[in-house]
Design a protein that fits this description.
Chain lengths: 455, 455
């Protein structure tokens, strides 16, 4: 055992669960702290989720918006990255239990495992209306979107062809707005000359939102600008619309007293999130209180009541000590919380304390199609091209900070000039089937229950 | 029906099966011919297979080396792309039968469906030693290679750790040489600082070749240069080595009279190819003769004996009318054959004939690691950096011709400067599982029989 190791062995051990914005910023901020850090994630990469819709719509490749955690943290000599999944904790013994291997002792635990989709009690919808949280989700969406045009090209029945060219996005938050905008551009620009039997510009894109306007957390002017921009792209925006049933390539929805059903082959879910599994683990083991979405209610310093050494940050945390509602589940909040907890832990090693967590909100943004956006900075609001430029620089700034993703900028510039979508590949799960005989039972491309087994 | 359609309806119908190098060049060359063209492929993209090993080793993303067929052919007004699979043909009625939809009548049929892996009667090896033909194959290889380091990092048993850090590439042709070189560079450069419990530079990479030298079809000097370059990268090159058994993370092989077994977690297959399913279809329906690998023996004009309207080109064809052995299964041969058959068909529409197919061989090349290659042009041979520059420009030239893949060039330049591997993501088949409970039965990362079901 060399000197560094001996020194590290006696240092407090900080275990971070989750390598998203919160966990990664906590780890980064602990680089020079006198602690040993273990970052556990079930994936080997950090994902820049705000651009995931661009993978789902064929503009970017997964690797463009993902950076290996080991690369980001390779110069952090006090930090170990572990590819594993936490399945339980023992807060009294200060242990986390891992799926694959041993248990780990911690002195401080930071939980930042985020959220997953929420179907409001209708989990059976998930196959018919996939959500967008992981790289695999994005590739599945990409496959469905581009496969719909392929299937329509081959479909002789006009009614079924129309359903194949109908895209419904459920949820008018930033992800729903961005997805709908990108799909409209695929139909009206990217693929418009590529088919012989169908006219892709006849595709219908519908955006459903339950509230009375899209982008509900934004100022009203932003919502109105965004809706106008979406409608200019040919998108049918339906507010005050509640989805009541999804099945058989159809969506049933209620508007006021009226109930309608629309035939649509591609239905994408951007309507709700639920806390990840770790929320329940924390509630069971520490008695932490959860909110309706399963998020963990945290103390003013982001710790759990009665457990000053366990912190919950990012989307998984419900922080209600500032303003009149909990902080939103967005990347900047998670990043600031990660930095705050890292600082708190560092100060604690020398017996100091810090004040409670405070968040300075710099505003929000959402992009609409290729060159429009709405940006709500607290001191000013922008729409259209200027907003898009602000949006693109804010994102590039972040991407470059991590991994010099210069390529993404060039790719964007290129796509912007050529209106191209270089990544519109229809791929399946990795498969090692040898091609020996043709499949016994032909599977229709339009089948939603197609299974691929990868080995 | 407009004028163009009326005109097209009376034109001869050329059906092309397969959008690889052969089929795509045939389609491209028929752009202005007085024929109607249907290109059928089961994938929606053309894949630049010579660079597939760079996807398998995390340098490029699939979209960097794939172009949607519809985009490449969007300006070919006489051409329709059909995403489907041919399952049979009737050469007397001149029909092809499709998996998903109707049958198609043809006046001329060009079959260019290539080859798949060949395990020489040991198909059970395919799960333990995957080959490299599709995007999915490449992502599976990428997952295994990078997962091996992750699993080694967590493995306390030194023997198992050693097996996890042992990589065996079976087959010393260009693909095997390129894969082995890239894996050695991953271990010695890309990930060398990224782990805490293992030293990735201790990884062993072995390259097995049955013949007495690697790159057997190349001149002896090239083989020797390539072997020297591989050994400088730390690769253990074993010639005259026949694999006799693969199972349980181990490879058994025979060298002369001796039989040995090595424990290796990652075994990659680059040893043999077999004709795709269409070879058998053609043999059954036309009586065409197949060679030992199942390739279709063709006439001097690439047609089938007795069927002057059916042509087989590319890897699937065995063309033995030039030189003392069949033409090699490489991209330039397929491209030239595609152009030749397109020209033959065009001439035929005005009652003219063409001479037999002749191939002008300009040489071969293979790349070794990041900046070395061997290039055998007929008039000169190169190795090392100069060869690498020739190699990279030959590939870039082709990629740019199709899809302005400028990005790939920039990506390469960037990786060359930074020694980075931006695409080293470990991903699975797309999955829509909601995360509700932790998996009941923990699956070890080292398990080779792991199944993912994607919906």
């Amino acid at each position: 055992m060399n000197n560094t190791q001996t020194k590290q062995a006696s240092m407090p051990h900080v275990v971070i669960v989750g390598g998203g914005f919160g966990g990664l910023y906590a780890a980064k901020s602990l680089k020079d702290a006198p602690v040993k850090v273990t970052l556990i994630d079930k994936r080997n990469f950090h994902l820049f989720q705000p651009l995931l819709y661009q993978v789902a719509t064929g503009t970017l490749s997964p690797a463009d918006i993902a950076s290996p955690l080991r690369v980001i943290l390779s110069k952090h000599k006090n930090t170990q990255v572990l590819l594993d999944k936490v399945i339980d904790i023992d807060p009294e013994a200060k242990k986390v239990f891992l799926e694959e291997r041993e248990e780990l002792d911690y002195d401080a635990l930071i939980v930042a495992t985020g959220v997953s989709h929420h179907y409001f009690g209708n989990d059976q919808w998930q196959n018919d209306a996939p959500g967008l949280k992981t790289v695999e989700d994005a590739l599945e969406m990409r496959r469905r979107i581009f496969m719909a045009f392929e299937a329509a090209e081959k479909e002789p029945n006009p009614e079924r062809r129309k359903a194949l060219l109908t895209f419904v996005v459920v949820g008018g938050g930033p992800t729903g707005v961005e997805l709908a905008g990108a799909i409209a551009e695929i139909a009206h620009q990217s693929v418009k000359n590529d088919f012989r039997n169908i006219d892709p510009t006849q595709a219908q894109v519908l955006l459903f939102e339950g509230m009375d306007r899209i982008l509900p957390p934004y100022p009203e002017k932003c919502s109105a600008d965004a809706q106008k921009a979406l409608e200019e792209l040919g998108i049918n925006v339906q507010t005050k619309t509640l989805v009541t049933h999804i099945a058989d390539n159809s969506v049933t929805f209620r508007q006021g007293e009226e109930t309608k059903t629309i035939q649509a082959h591609t239905i994408l879910w951007a309507a709700g999130v639920r806390a990840s599994f770790m929320g329940k683990v924390l509630a069971d083991s520490t008695g932490a209180e959860l909110d309706r979405s399963g998020r963990v209610i945290v103390e003013p310093d982001l710790s759990l009541k009665g457990y000053g050494d366990i912190f919950v940050i990012g989307d998984l945390a419900n922080f209600a000590h500032q303003g009149d509602r909990p902080l939103p589940g967005v990347a900047p909040v998670a990043m600031k919380q990660g930095e705050y907890v890292a600082n708190l832990i560092t100060k604690r090693t020398v017996g100091k304390t810090v004040g409670q967590f405070k968040y300075q909100d710099f505003g929000s943004m959402a992009v609409i199609g290729q060159n429009k956006a709405v940006v709500d900075l607290n001191f000013a609001k922008f729409s259209g091209f200027v907003a898009w430029i602000i949006w693109i620089f804010a994102h590039i700034y972040y991407l470059i900070e991590f991994d010099n993703k210069l390529i993404v900028m060039i790719q964007w510039a290129w796509n912007y000039i050529t209106l191209g979508r270089g990544a519109r590949l229809i791929t399946e799960g990795s498969s090692l089937q040898l091609e020996i005989e043709p499949p016994k039972k032909p599977e229709r491309a339009t089948s939603q229950s197609k299974e691929t087994v990868s080995v």
